[in-house]
Amino acid sequence: MEYLGNLEKMESEQHSPVQYTLHLGSERIPMNTLIGSEIRIDFQHQIHCQHCGRLTTKSYFSGYCWPCYKTLPQTDDCIFHPEMCQAQEGISRDMEWSEQFCLQPHVVYLALSSDVKVGVTRESQIPTRWIDQGASEAVVLARTHNRHEAGLIEVLLKKHLPDKTNWRLMLQNKVKEGVDLLAEKKRVAKLLVPAFESFISPDDTVYRFEYPVETYPEKLRSIKLDKQSQIRARLIGIKGQYLLFDDHTCFNVRNHGGYQVRVTA
Question: Which residues contact residue 87 at a Cβ distance below 8 angstroms, ignoring those fewer than 6 apart?
Answer without folding.
Answer: 78, 95, 98, 99, 102, 103, 146, 147, 148
